Amino acid sequence: MIPTVKFASKDPENFYRTLRKRVNGYFKDNGIDKTANTHMYVKTVAMLAIYFVPYALMLAQVFPAWVGILLYCVMGFGMAGIGFSIMHDANHGSYSSKKWVNDFWGYTLNLVGGSIFTWRIQHNVLHHSYTNIYEMDEDIEDKPFLRLSPHGKLKPHHRFQHIYAVLLYGLATITWVLTKDFEQWKDYKNNGMAEKNGFNLRKEMFILIISRAVYYFYVLALPMMLGVPVGIVIGGFLLMHLIAGIYITVIFQLAHVVEGPEHFTPVTTGDMENTWAIHQLKTTADFAPKNRFITWYVGGLNFQIEHHLFPNICHVHYKHIAKIVKETAEECGLPYHLHPKLGQAVASHFRTLKAFGNPVSEPEKEREAVAA
């Protein structure tokens, strides 16, 4: 069973109440809807095009066969873009005020080899509810070769994880399409998370099997049937997932596994000291807020603090409410973790990986304390 914690109910500074009032006032005063706008619709078309246009060109075989490898690589960027900018908002219910619209765009995750069932539990429920709480947030759980929490089980090879992590990140999406979604279906059945969150397990397994079969057919079988060389298809498929896996994993890591955000464990904390909203501030970081291309491509996930506090707001609005969030946090004496540049955030992530893999021993801590 997944451990449980209870967040504090009292907020002496009335941080979240004040923040919600100000953010709601921004939308009301400017006559803006919290869901998708024209910018979002254009981005939706663009991300789908980055994925499906090179796919169509490959099937049409208008270029030499070897170019198929490059087309699959472009599809990798499109695949990540669909995840960042379409399915993520839709599965949070922030793409539209209409449920069927959110469900429709949410299934773009299945279209590129994922599962909205496992995503909604792992990401929406566990990660957003229990951010950076070891044994509850699956994003920082122990991996075979990675230690993403200072509370994780330390192994000798973790001392090198900052060196080899990127290669493992590249395997992220390929494991999803091969085994992980099926393993998680079983896990969420056994630990009761599926039933608790109102999912019909038989229905979800049926959808998973059918959508995965369709995915394998159009990405692998159809190109081969139309004459694309087998080596190009298999090699391109692997490169596509390598690219998508690295981009998706790194972007999500830059929000939580960097210097600044705190990590917790239910074993040592029991009832949490902070309210849920304050917990989000303490465990989350923004990065590169002024980089317009990054903001566009990663679906506003560089404004991760805003996303965690307001997951029901479409990401195209995050840059506009970020100032409100930052000012309110500062007024209440609360942290607002920010890395101004992408490079700074990436460097911080790898320093954090190194620190988690090479923790200071107790005697060394004592010597450092004496020296200070």
Describe this protein with a few key phrases.
single chain, 372 residues, mainly alpha, 64% helix, disordered C terminus
**Uncertain runs:** 361-372
Radius of gyration computed on alpha carbons: 21 Å
Major sheet attributes:
2 strands, parallel
Structural class: mainly alpha
Task: Outline the structure in words.
- The chain is mostly helical and 372 residues long.
- It has one domain.
- It has 18 helices and two strands.
- The protein has helices spanning 15-29, 38-60, 67-91, 99-106, 108-111, 116-129, 161-169, 172-190, 193-196, 201-225, 230-256, 266-269, 276-283, 292-297, 304-309, 318-331, 342-357, 362-371, and strands at residues 285-287, 337-339.
- The protein has a two-stranded parallel ribbon.
- Helix 1 packs antiparallel against helix 16 (318-331).
- The protein is globular, with a radius of gyration of 21 Å.
- The N and C termini lie far apart (43 Å).
- Residues 361-372 have low confidence and may be disordered.
What's a quick, concise take on this entry?
The protein is mostly helical. It has one domain (15-357).
